[in-house]
Amino acid sequence: MTCEEAEVLVHALIDGELDAGHAREVEAHIEGCAHCAALMKEYQEIRQAIAESDVRYKAPLELRRKIEKALPQPQTQAQAAPSRRSVLRGFAMGSAVSAMAATGLVAIVLRSDDEQRIENEVVSAHLRSLQAGHLIDVVSTDQHTVKPWFNGKLDVSPPVIDLTAQGFTLIGGRLDYVNAREIGAVVYKRRQHVINLFVAQTANTERKSAKISTLQGFNIRRWSDRGLNYWAVSDLGADELTEFGDKFESAMRANKEG
Amino acid sequence: MVVNASQDDPEKARRFREAALPYLDDAYTLARYLLRDAADAEDAVQECYLRAYKHFDSYRGPAMKPWLFAILRNVCRAEYARRKTAPTAVEELPEGGEQTPLWNEAPETPEKQLLRRFDGDTVRKLVAALAEPFRETFVLREIQNLSYREIADVAAVPVGTVMSRLARARAMLRSAWLAEQEQVK
Ligand SMILES: [Zn+2]
After folding, report:
1. What is the pLDDT of residues B26-63, one digit of tens each?
2. A122 with A223, same domain?
3. Chain A contacts in chain B segment 103-132 (CB below 8 A)
4. Structural domain of residue A31, as residue ranges?
5. Do B167 and A124 touch (CB under 8 A)?
6. Are A18 and A9 in contact (CB under 8 A)?
7. H or E element at residue A199
């Protein structure tokens, strides 16, 4: 094999696309040719460098919104009254129940197959967020920075609570898309583990206690309280994710009382 | 942009969302590299998803990602054509670029030192500077992780062409990488 041939085939070797016979031929050439061997090493290094750097782009939320808008909407959303936006603007903790009761919105109750589908979407959103550069739109460990950032971007801003003292560091917030709707994600970290807390508004104000489930290797703790649905998703163990949810819920109760 | 009434099937839309929307960032990334313009990329991806939804009934495979990419690529081709006739063409395909022999990039004797690592922005810039169609092949392989067969399908060329384009692309990128390294030294 000549160097010229090897210089082309070496790429297929790197990519694992060569059949065994050709792979052996290229390898044999490389063993006897310092030039091609060094070249291959450089290509592999470049390849590695690219795999490890942030070379991807994140689709703008506006694009996602435009595409979503053009598609027929799922049933659940069709039932949501268009007045939601105006009614709930300026929503504050504690006033959710009365606001929703007053408007007499049709309750958006998730069917159980919907629940499963949404858990799938939540896990996909979690996975997307873990790609380089996609985790956080607003970077801050300060709840007083993260909370206002959501205002005006969503009908209902998610509660943002600092749980650093409880061992879960707030690292920021993000807008995401679940169930054909924009929702807020509050991002926490424990050690190297990311927790995405997705928060979506629901007209069903009934309190639902936490359920833990596992999907694609991720744990999900789901609960509902005062007109908001919560999904905490992480690769943390179920025990630690439960701890997170408990700490969050008791902090919310303390907030309400205080 | 509105989907007409006959397309207005919530169940179809649900299936489409589940199958295609997870690749939105991938599609946008590809469009950014192909068109090298954020606004054009956004338009192209939107058009791509609308076309994909229209043809979703007839979709039987291959994998969703290459299927979407093939549609997106056609949308981008149309954009190239538009640019070419526009008074200020942003980008010209190099004439006969593919026939230029490999040794044009003259893989000079590799240096003994390690290649320098660059930040994401610099790497993006280096990749974006590759000439078409090498950039397309390179992005499909290295950033989108498609197989040679899938790249061949997306780009509508034989697998052999994918191989030679990829070899050229990597040789060009390597030269640009070394040049950048020289510059920041
Ligand atoms: Zn050689």
Report:
1. 999 999 999 999 999 999 999 999 999 988 888 887 78
2. yes
3. 103, 107, 109-110, 114-115, 117-120, 123-124, 127
4. 3-52
5. no
6. yes
7. strand A193-201
